[in-house]
Amino acid sequence: xxxxxxxxxxxxxxxxxxxxxxxxxxxxxxxxxxxxxxxxxxxxxxxxxxxxxxxxxxxxxxxxxxxxxxxxxxxxxxxxxxxxxxxxxxxxxxxxxxxxxxxxxxxxxxxxxxxxxxxxxxxxxxxxxxxxxxxxxxxxxxxxxxxxxxxxxxxxxxxxxxxxxxxxxxxxxxxxxxxxxxxxxxxxxxxxxxxxxxxxxxxxxxxxxxxxxxxxxxxxxxxxxxxxxxxxxxxxxxxxxxxxxxxxxxxxxxxxxxxxxxxxxxxxxxxxxxxxxxxxxxxxxxxxxxxxxxxxxxxxxxxxxxxxxxxxxxxxxxxxxxxxxxxxxxxxxxxxxxxxxxxxxxxxxxxxxxxxxxxxxxxxxxxxxxxxxxxxxxxxxxxxxxxxxxxxxxxxxxxxxxxxxxxxxxxxxxxxxxxxxxxxx
Length: 425
Ligand code: GDP
Ligand code: IMO
Ligand code: MG
Known about the structure:
CATH architecture of the largest domain: 3-Layer(aba) Sandwich
Mean pLDDT: 97
Largest sheet: 9 strands, mixed
Radius of gyration: 21 Å
CATH topology of the largest domain: Adenylosuccinate Synthetase, Chain A, domain 1
Number of domains: 3
CATH superfamily of the largest domain: Adenylosuccinate Synthetase, subunit A, domain 1
Bound molecules: guanosine-5'-diphosphate, 6-O-phosphoryl inosine monophosphate, magnesium ion
Distance between the termini: 23 Å
Structural class: alpha/beta
Low-confidence stretches: none
CATH class of the largest domain: Alpha Beta
Protein backbone atom coordinates (compact mmCIF):
# COMPACT_ATOMS: atom_id res chain seq x y z
CA UNK A 1 0.00 0.00 0.00
CA UNK A 2 2.36 2.65 -1.21
CA UNK A 3 0.25 5.82 -1.53
CA UNK A 4 0.17 8.80 0.82
CA UNK A 5 -2.51 11.41 0.27
CA UNK A 6 -1.77 14.87 1.61
CA UNK A 7 -4.78 17.11 2.06
CA UNK A 8 -5.68 20.48 3.51
CA UNK A 9 -7.85 20.16 6.61
CA UNK A 10 -9.22 23.71 6.52
CA UNK A 11 -9.86 26.34 3.80
CA UNK A 12 -6.54 26.01 1.97
CA UNK A 13 -3.12 27.56 2.58
CA UNK A 14 -2.48 25.27 5.56
CA UNK A 15 1.13 24.77 4.49
CA UNK A 16 0.64 21.75 2.20
CA UNK A 17 3.55 22.80 -0.03
CA UNK A 18 6.08 22.79 2.77
CA UNK A 19 4.73 19.49 4.16
CA UNK A 20 4.93 17.96 0.66
CA UNK A 21 8.55 19.12 0.61
CA UNK A 22 9.26 17.09 3.79
CA UNK A 23 7.35 14.05 2.60
CA UNK A 24 9.25 14.18 -0.69
CA UNK A 25 12.21 12.60 1.12
CA UNK A 26 10.11 9.47 1.70
CA UNK A 27 8.53 9.42 -1.79
CA UNK A 28 9.56 8.39 -5.29
CA UNK A 29 6.84 10.32 -7.12
CA UNK A 30 4.52 13.21 -6.41
CA UNK A 31 1.25 14.00 -8.14
CA UNK A 32 -1.15 16.91 -8.12
CA UNK A 33 -4.63 15.46 -8.45
CA UNK A 34 -7.09 18.36 -8.52
CA UNK A 35 -7.50 22.08 -9.03
CA UNK A 36 -5.30 24.37 -11.07
CA UNK A 37 -3.33 27.55 -10.54
CA UNK A 38 -5.83 28.71 -7.93
CA UNK A 39 -3.42 26.82 -5.67
CA UNK A 40 -0.34 28.56 -4.35
CA UNK A 41 2.11 26.33 -2.49
CA UNK A 42 5.17 27.84 -0.87
CA UNK A 43 8.39 25.99 -0.18
CA UNK A 44 11.30 27.76 1.46
CA UNK A 45 14.76 26.28 1.41
CA UNK A 46 17.27 28.69 2.91
CA UNK A 47 17.35 31.83 0.79
CA UNK A 48 15.37 30.17 -1.99
CA UNK A 49 11.59 30.53 -2.08
CA UNK A 50 9.44 28.55 -4.51
CA UNK A 51 5.85 29.58 -5.19
CA UNK A 52 4.26 26.67 -7.01
CA UNK A 53 0.79 26.73 -8.57
CA UNK A 54 0.62 23.72 -10.89
CA UNK A 55 3.76 21.61 -10.63
CA UNK A 56 3.94 19.32 -7.55
CA UNK A 57 6.06 20.83 -4.78
CA UNK A 58 8.35 17.78 -4.94
CA UNK A 59 9.89 19.06 -8.19
CA UNK A 60 12.72 20.65 -6.26
CA UNK A 61 13.88 17.20 -5.12
CA UNK A 62 15.88 15.82 -8.08
CA UNK A 63 14.97 12.17 -7.42
CA UNK A 64 11.20 12.65 -7.76
CA UNK A 65 8.95 11.90 -10.72
CA UNK A 66 6.18 14.53 -10.96
CA UNK A 67 2.68 14.00 -12.30
CA UNK A 68 -0.12 16.43 -13.18
CA UNK A 69 -3.24 14.27 -13.10
CA UNK A 70 -6.40 14.03 -15.16
CA UNK A 71 -8.71 15.90 -12.78
CA UNK A 72 -6.61 19.07 -12.93
CA UNK A 73 -7.43 22.17 -14.94
CA UNK A 74 -4.30 23.63 -16.47
CA UNK A 75 -3.62 27.09 -17.83
CA UNK A 76 -0.83 26.34 -20.34
CA UNK A 77 0.59 29.88 -20.19
CA UNK A 78 0.89 29.73 -16.42
CA UNK A 79 2.45 26.27 -16.57
CA UNK A 80 5.09 27.48 -19.04
CA UNK A 81 5.81 30.46 -16.74
CA UNK A 82 6.21 28.08 -13.81
CA UNK A 83 8.56 25.80 -15.72
CA UNK A 84 10.64 28.85 -16.70
CA UNK A 85 10.71 30.00 -13.07
CA UNK A 86 11.96 26.55 -12.03
CA UNK A 87 14.61 26.48 -14.75
CA UNK A 88 15.74 29.91 -13.51
CA UNK A 89 16.17 28.38 -10.05
CA UNK A 90 18.25 25.54 -11.46
CA UNK A 91 15.56 22.84 -11.24
CA UNK A 92 15.46 20.01 -13.78
CA UNK A 93 12.10 20.20 -15.59
CA UNK A 94 12.83 17.73 -18.36
CA UNK A 95 9.95 15.74 -19.85
CA UNK A 96 11.42 12.51 -18.51
CA UNK A 97 10.49 13.54 -14.96
CA UNK A 98 7.29 15.57 -15.44
CA UNK A 99 4.20 13.83 -16.81
CA UNK A 100 1.04 15.74 -17.76
CA UNK A 101 -2.15 13.79 -18.26
CA UNK A 102 -3.64 14.31 -21.73
CA UNK A 103 -7.02 14.13 -20.00
CA UNK A 104 -6.66 17.22 -17.85
CA UNK A 105 -8.65 20.23 -19.01
CA UNK A 106 -7.25 23.44 -20.43
CA UNK A 107 -8.04 26.84 -18.97
CA UNK A 108 -8.46 29.39 -21.74
CA UNK A 109 -8.83 33.20 -21.71
CA UNK A 110 -12.57 32.54 -22.13
CA UNK A 111 -12.72 30.82 -18.73
CA UNK A 112 -10.81 33.61 -17.03
CA UNK A 113 -13.09 36.28 -18.52
CA UNK A 114 -16.20 34.31 -17.53
CA UNK A 115 -14.90 33.82 -13.97
CA UNK A 116 -14.43 37.59 -13.60
CA UNK A 117 -17.78 38.41 -15.21
CA UNK A 118 -19.67 35.97 -13.01
CA UNK A 119 -18.01 37.28 -9.85
CA UNK A 120 -18.78 40.89 -10.73
CA UNK A 121 -22.40 40.01 -11.51
CA UNK A 122 -22.78 38.32 -8.12
CA UNK A 123 -21.69 41.55 -6.42
CA UNK A 124 -21.82 41.24 -2.64
CA UNK A 125 -22.84 37.59 -3.03
CA UNK A 126 -19.64 36.74 -4.90
CA UNK A 127 -17.60 33.65 -4.01
CA UNK A 128 -14.34 35.57 -3.94
CA UNK A 129 -12.66 33.24 -6.45
CA UNK A 130 -9.03 33.53 -7.43
CA UNK A 131 -10.25 34.59 -10.91
CA UNK A 132 -8.07 31.99 -12.56
CA UNK A 133 -10.96 30.57 -14.62
CA UNK A 134 -11.30 27.48 -12.42
CA UNK A 135 -15.12 27.34 -12.17
CA UNK A 136 -15.77 27.94 -15.88
CA UNK A 137 -13.12 25.36 -16.88
CA UNK A 138 -14.72 22.69 -14.67
CA UNK A 139 -18.17 23.76 -15.94
CA UNK A 140 -17.01 23.18 -19.52
CA UNK A 141 -15.60 19.81 -18.45
CA UNK A 142 -18.95 18.79 -16.92
CA UNK A 143 -20.82 20.10 -19.99
CA UNK A 144 -18.40 18.06 -22.13
CA UNK A 145 -17.37 21.09 -24.15
CA UNK A 146 -13.94 21.44 -22.55
CA UNK A 147 -10.57 21.26 -24.28
CA UNK A 148 -8.33 18.41 -23.19
CA UNK A 149 -4.63 18.97 -22.58
CA UNK A 150 -4.05 16.09 -25.03
CA UNK A 151 -5.03 18.46 -27.85
CA UNK A 152 -1.76 20.33 -27.35
CA UNK A 153 -0.10 17.50 -29.29
CA UNK A 154 -1.52 19.20 -32.39
CA UNK A 155 -0.93 22.93 -31.81
CA UNK A 156 -2.90 24.02 -34.90
CA UNK A 157 -6.02 22.09 -33.92
CA UNK A 158 -5.50 23.21 -30.32
CA UNK A 159 -5.52 26.94 -31.07
CA UNK A 160 -8.54 26.47 -33.34
CA UNK A 161 -10.38 24.90 -30.39
CA UNK A 162 -9.31 27.70 -28.03
CA UNK A 163 -10.38 30.32 -30.59
CA UNK A 164 -13.79 28.64 -31.05
CA UNK A 165 -14.29 28.56 -27.31
CA UNK A 166 -13.48 32.26 -27.00
CA UNK A 167 -15.99 33.07 -29.74
CA UNK A 168 -18.62 31.09 -27.88
CA UNK A 169 -17.77 32.80 -24.57
CA UNK A 170 -17.94 36.20 -26.26
CA UNK A 171 -21.62 35.66 -26.91
CA UNK A 172 -22.15 35.14 -23.19
CA UNK A 173 -19.91 38.05 -22.21
CA UNK A 174 -21.67 40.45 -24.58
CA UNK A 175 -25.29 39.24 -24.53
CA UNK A 176 -25.62 38.15 -20.89
CA UNK A 177 -23.09 40.28 -19.02
CA UNK A 178 -23.13 43.34 -21.32
CA UNK A 179 -19.32 43.35 -21.48
CA UNK A 180 -16.83 43.90 -24.29
CA UNK A 181 -15.84 40.73 -26.17
CA UNK A 182 -12.29 39.46 -25.70
CA UNK A 183 -9.94 39.41 -28.67
CA UNK A 184 -9.11 35.78 -29.37
CA UNK A 185 -6.09 36.71 -31.47
CA UNK A 186 -4.40 38.43 -28.50
CA UNK A 187 -3.24 35.18 -26.95
CA UNK A 188 -3.27 32.71 -29.85
CA UNK A 189 0.47 32.94 -30.54
CA UNK A 190 1.18 32.32 -26.85
CA UNK A 191 -1.22 29.34 -26.75
CA UNK A 192 0.42 27.92 -29.88
CA UNK A 193 3.89 28.24 -28.37
CA UNK A 194 2.73 26.82 -25.05
CA UNK A 195 1.26 23.77 -26.83
CA UNK A 196 4.55 23.18 -28.63
CA UNK A 197 6.46 23.52 -25.39
CA UNK A 198 4.15 21.28 -23.32
CA UNK A 199 3.39 18.54 -25.86
CA UNK A 200 6.50 16.49 -24.94
CA UNK A 201 5.21 16.25 -21.35
CA UNK A 202 1.91 14.58 -22.33
CA UNK A 203 2.09 10.97 -21.18
CA UNK A 204 -0.34 8.29 -20.15
CA UNK A 205 -0.27 9.20 -16.46
CA UNK A 206 -2.47 6.24 -15.50
CA UNK A 207 0.26 3.95 -16.84
CA UNK A 208 2.97 6.05 -15.20
CA UNK A 209 1.20 5.76 -11.83
CA UNK A 210 0.65 2.01 -12.14
CA UNK A 211 4.19 1.33 -13.33
CA UNK A 212 5.41 3.12 -10.20
CA UNK A 213 3.05 1.19 -7.94
CA UNK A 214 3.95 -2.13 -9.60
CA UNK A 215 7.61 -1.37 -8.95
CA UNK A 216 6.86 -0.82 -5.26
CA UNK A 217 7.54 2.90 -5.45
CA UNK A 218 5.92 5.37 -3.06
CA UNK A 219 3.54 7.97 -4.46
CA UNK A 220 2.62 11.16 -2.65
CA UNK A 221 -0.59 12.82 -3.83
CA UNK A 222 -0.32 16.52 -3.09
CA UNK A 223 -3.75 17.98 -2.50
CA UNK A 224 -4.67 21.54 -3.35
CA UNK A 225 -7.19 23.78 -1.58
CA UNK A 226 -8.73 22.24 1.54
CA UNK A 227 -11.54 20.04 2.83
CA UNK A 228 -13.88 22.97 3.46
CA UNK A 229 -13.39 24.19 -0.13
CA UNK A 230 -14.26 20.77 -1.61
CA UNK A 231 -17.13 20.98 -4.09
CA UNK A 232 -19.06 18.21 -2.30
CA UNK A 233 -17.89 18.58 1.27
CA UNK A 234 -17.48 22.33 1.68
CA UNK A 235 -20.14 24.98 2.13
CA UNK A 236 -21.54 25.32 -1.39
CA UNK A 237 -21.35 27.67 -3.29
CA UNK A 238 -18.38 29.08 -1.33
CA UNK A 239 -16.14 26.28 -2.53
CA UNK A 240 -13.83 25.55 -5.41
CA UNK A 241 -15.00 23.39 -8.32
CA UNK A 242 -13.00 20.24 -7.65
CA UNK A 243 -12.59 17.39 -5.16
CA UNK A 244 -10.00 18.58 -2.67
CA UNK A 245 -10.65 15.66 -0.29
CA UNK A 246 -9.05 12.21 -0.29
CA UNK A 247 -11.42 10.76 -2.89
CA UNK A 248 -10.16 13.32 -5.40
CA UNK A 249 -6.77 11.61 -5.41
CA UNK A 250 -8.34 8.28 -6.31
CA UNK A 251 -10.55 9.59 -9.13
CA UNK A 252 -7.98 12.12 -10.28
CA UNK A 253 -5.13 9.66 -10.65
CA UNK A 254 -6.89 6.34 -11.16
CA UNK A 255 -5.96 3.76 -8.51
CA UNK A 256 -7.92 1.80 -5.94
CA UNK A 257 -8.47 2.98 -2.35
CA UNK A 258 -6.57 -0.04 -0.98
CA UNK A 259 -3.35 1.54 -2.32
CA UNK A 260 -3.62 4.36 0.25
CA UNK A 261 -1.97 3.68 3.59
CA UNK A 262 -1.48 7.23 4.89
CA UNK A 263 -3.76 10.23 4.81
CA UNK A 264 -1.88 13.24 6.14
CA UNK A 265 -3.97 16.32 6.83
CA UNK A 266 -2.38 19.72 7.29
CA UNK A 267 -3.96 22.22 9.66
CA UNK A 268 -2.75 25.55 10.91
CA UNK A 269 -2.74 26.01 14.68
CA UNK A 270 -5.46 28.62 14.02
CA UNK A 271 -7.73 29.19 11.01
CA UNK A 272 -7.59 31.32 7.89
CA UNK A 273 -9.80 31.68 4.87
CA UNK A 274 -9.42 33.75 1.71
CA UNK A 275 -12.60 34.45 -0.20
CA UNK A 276 -16.18 34.56 1.05
CA UNK A 277 -18.36 32.05 2.88
CA UNK A 278 -18.90 30.73 6.41
CA UNK A 279 -16.02 31.04 8.89
CA UNK A 280 -17.48 30.55 12.38
CA UNK A 281 -14.34 31.41 14.38
CA UNK A 282 -13.35 34.48 12.32
CA UNK A 283 -11.95 37.33 14.42
CA UNK A 284 -12.80 40.81 13.22
CA UNK A 285 -10.69 42.43 15.91
CA UNK A 286 -7.10 43.14 16.90
CA UNK A 287 -6.48 39.45 17.65
CA UNK A 288 -7.41 38.58 14.05
CA UNK A 289 -5.24 41.44 12.86
CA UNK A 290 -2.34 40.15 14.95
CA UNK A 291 -2.66 36.64 13.48
CA UNK A 292 -2.64 38.17 9.98
CA UNK A 293 0.48 40.23 10.60
CA UNK A 294 2.50 37.73 12.63
CA UNK A 295 1.46 34.86 10.35
CA UNK A 296 1.96 36.90 7.13
CA UNK A 297 -1.52 35.86 6.11
CA UNK A 298 -1.67 37.20 2.58
CA UNK A 299 -2.59 34.90 -0.31
CA UNK A 300 0.22 33.25 -2.31
CA UNK A 301 -1.85 33.35 -5.50
CA UNK A 302 -3.77 36.64 -5.25
CA UNK A 303 -2.02 38.58 -2.47
CA UNK A 304 -5.40 39.11 -0.78
CA UNK A 305 -5.36 39.47 3.03
CA UNK A 306 -6.61 36.21 4.56
CA UNK A 307 -9.44 36.23 7.08
CA UNK A 308 -8.09 34.92 10.40
CA UNK A 309 -9.60 33.29 13.48
CA UNK A 310 -9.23 30.74 16.26
CA UNK A 311 -8.77 27.05 15.59
CA UNK A 312 -12.10 25.39 14.85
CA UNK A 313 -12.05 21.83 16.23
CA UNK A 314 -15.60 21.19 14.95
CA UNK A 315 -14.40 21.79 11.39
CA UNK A 316 -11.13 19.92 12.00
CA UNK A 317 -12.97 16.85 13.33
CA UNK A 318 -15.15 16.98 10.21
CA UNK A 319 -12.01 17.00 8.00
CA UNK A 320 -10.57 14.04 9.92
CA UNK A 321 -13.76 12.04 9.34
CA UNK A 322 -14.39 13.02 5.72
CA UNK A 323 -10.84 12.09 4.69
CA UNK A 324 -10.08 9.15 7.00
CA UNK A 325 -7.07 11.09 8.27
CA UNK A 326 -4.35 8.92 9.81
CA UNK A 327 -2.17 11.80 11.03
CA UNK A 328 -2.22 15.56 11.35
CA UNK A 329 0.54 18.04 10.69
CA UNK A 330 0.03 21.20 12.72
CA UNK A 331 1.64 24.25 11.11
CA UNK A 332 2.35 27.78 12.31
CA UNK A 333 2.36 27.00 16.01
CA UNK A 334 5.05 29.71 16.28
CA UNK A 335 2.49 32.36 15.28
CA UNK A 336 0.59 31.77 18.54
CA UNK A 337 3.63 32.49 20.75
CA UNK A 338 3.21 35.58 22.91
CA UNK A 339 -0.57 35.41 23.29
CA UNK A 340 -1.94 35.31 26.86
CA UNK A 341 -4.87 33.03 26.20
CA UNK A 342 -5.85 30.89 23.25
CA UNK A 343 -9.28 29.67 22.21
CA UNK A 344 -10.40 26.56 20.36
CA UNK A 345 -13.99 26.13 19.18
CA UNK A 346 -15.31 22.79 20.42
CA UNK A 347 -19.01 23.19 19.56
CA UNK A 348 -21.46 25.65 18.02
CA UNK A 349 -24.57 27.20 19.47
CA UNK A 350 -27.41 27.18 16.94
CA UNK A 351 -31.10 28.15 17.20
CA UNK A 352 -31.77 24.40 17.59
CA UNK A 353 -29.31 24.03 20.46
CA UNK A 354 -25.65 23.14 20.88
CA UNK A 355 -24.03 20.95 18.21
CA UNK A 356 -20.60 19.35 18.02
CA UNK A 357 -20.73 18.45 14.31
CA UNK A 358 -20.46 20.73 11.31
CA UNK A 359 -23.84 21.76 9.86
CA UNK A 360 -24.01 21.07 6.12
CA UNK A 361 -26.33 23.98 5.46
CA UNK A 362 -24.33 27.02 4.38
CA UNK A 363 -26.67 29.73 5.69
CA UNK A 364 -27.05 27.88 9.01
CA UNK A 365 -23.26 27.63 9.38
CA UNK A 366 -23.02 31.38 8.83
CA UNK A 367 -25.27 31.88 11.86
CA UNK A 368 -23.63 29.55 14.40
CA UNK A 369 -21.95 30.95 17.50
CA UNK A 370 -18.77 29.07 18.40
CA UNK A 371 -18.39 27.67 21.91
CA UNK A 372 -14.79 28.12 22.99
CA UNK A 373 -12.47 26.27 25.29
CA UNK A 374 -9.81 28.60 26.68
CA UNK A 375 -6.21 27.50 27.08
CA UNK A 376 -3.26 29.38 28.55
CA UNK A 377 -0.73 30.69 26.02
CA UNK A 378 3.08 30.72 26.17
CA UNK A 379 5.41 33.68 25.94
CA UNK A 380 8.68 32.21 24.68
CA UNK A 381 9.80 31.93 21.07
CA UNK A 382 9.59 28.37 19.76
CA UNK A 383 11.02 28.70 16.24
CA UNK A 384 14.38 27.16 17.19
CA UNK A 385 12.98 24.17 19.07
CA UNK A 386 13.17 20.72 17.48
CA UNK A 387 11.96 18.40 20.25
CA UNK A 388 8.41 18.18 21.57
CA UNK A 389 9.55 18.00 25.16
CA UNK A 390 11.42 21.30 24.76
CA UNK A 391 8.23 23.18 23.88
CA UNK A 392 6.73 25.29 26.70
CA UNK A 393 4.29 23.14 28.69
CA UNK A 394 1.33 25.21 27.52
CA UNK A 395 2.32 24.69 23.87
CA UNK A 396 2.54 20.93 24.49
CA UNK A 397 -0.91 21.05 26.11
CA UNK A 398 -2.31 22.99 23.16
CA UNK A 399 -1.07 20.35 20.69
CA UNK A 400 -2.37 17.50 22.85
CA UNK A 401 -5.75 19.18 23.12
CA UNK A 402 -5.89 19.63 19.33
CA UNK A 403 -5.28 15.93 18.75
CA UNK A 404 -7.85 14.91 21.37
CA UNK A 405 -10.49 17.21 19.88
CA UNK A 406 -9.67 16.37 16.26
CA UNK A 407 -9.53 12.63 16.83
CA UNK A 408 -6.19 12.11 15.05
CA UNK A 409 -2.56 12.17 16.22
CA UNK A 410 -0.33 15.14 15.42
CA UNK A 411 2.82 13.63 13.91
CA UNK A 412 4.68 16.81 13.00
CA UNK A 413 4.47 20.38 14.32
CA UNK A 414 5.94 23.17 12.27
CA UNK A 415 7.37 26.18 14.03
CA UNK A 416 8.52 28.32 11.11
CA UNK A 417 8.46 28.37 7.30
CA UNK A 418 11.95 26.91 6.79
CA UNK A 419 12.44 23.27 5.86
CA UNK A 420 14.18 22.41 9.15
CA UNK A 421 11.72 24.30 11.41
CA UNK A 422 9.80 21.21 12.42
CA UNK A 423 9.23 19.01 15.42
CA UNK A 424 8.75 15.36 14.48
CA UNK A 425 7.11 13.36 17.25
P1 GDP B 1 -0.43 25.75 0.96
O1 GDP B 1 -1.29 26.40 -0.07
O2 GDP B 1 -1.21 24.85 1.85
O3 GDP B 1 0.78 25.08 0.38
O4 GDP B 1 0.11 26.94 1.89
P2 GDP B 1 0.70 28.36 1.39
O5 GDP B 1 2.09 28.15 0.91
O6 GDP B 1 -0.26 29.05 0.50
O7 GDP B 1 0.67 29.17 2.75
C1 GDP B 1 1.39 28.77 3.87
C2 GDP B 1 2.35 29.91 4.27
O8 GDP B 1 2.78 29.71 5.59
C3 GDP B 1 3.61 29.96 3.42
O9 GDP B 1 4.00 31.29 3.26
C4 GDP B 1 4.62 29.19 4.26
O10 GDP B 1 5.98 29.61 4.01
C5 GDP B 1 4.19 29.59 5.64
N1 GDP B 1 4.44 28.58 6.67
C6 GDP B 1 4.26 27.23 6.58
N2 GDP B 1 4.48 26.64 7.77
C7 GDP B 1 4.79 27.64 8.65
C8 GDP B 1 5.09 27.66 10.05
O11 GDP B 1 5.11 26.66 10.73
N3 GDP B 1 5.33 28.89 10.61
C9 GDP B 1 5.30 30.03 9.88
N4 GDP B 1 5.52 31.18 10.51
N5 GDP B 1 5.02 30.04 8.56
C10 GDP B 1 4.76 28.86 7.95
P1 IMO C 1 -4.09 26.25 -1.93
O1 IMO C 1 -3.84 24.96 -2.70
C1 IMO C 1 -6.93 29.14 -0.37
C2 IMO C 1 -10.66 29.66 -2.62
C3 IMO C 1 -10.87 31.03 -3.22
C4 IMO C 1 -12.38 31.10 -3.18
C5 IMO C 1 -12.80 29.68 -3.52
C6 IMO C 1 -13.13 29.47 -4.99
O2 IMO C 1 -3.02 27.25 -2.04
O3 IMO C 1 -4.48 25.91 -0.53
P2 IMO C 1 -11.64 29.30 -7.18
O4 IMO C 1 -10.69 30.27 -7.79
O5 IMO C 1 -11.05 27.98 -6.85
O6 IMO C 1 -12.90 29.15 -7.99
O7 IMO C 1 -12.10 30.00 -5.80
O8 IMO C 1 -11.70 28.86 -3.16
N1 IMO C 1 -9.38 29.01 -2.98
C7 IMO C 1 -8.32 28.92 -2.16
N2 IMO C 1 -8.11 29.44 -0.94
N3 IMO C 1 -6.00 28.35 -0.93
C8 IMO C 1 -6.21 27.80 -2.15
O9 IMO C 1 -5.37 26.89 -2.68
C9 IMO C 1 -7.40 28.10 -2.84
N4 IMO C 1 -7.91 27.75 -4.04
C10 IMO C 1 -9.12 28.30 -4.10
O10 IMO C 1 -10.26 32.02 -2.44
O11 IMO C 1 -12.81 31.36 -1.86
MG1 MG D 1 -1.77 28.28 -0.82
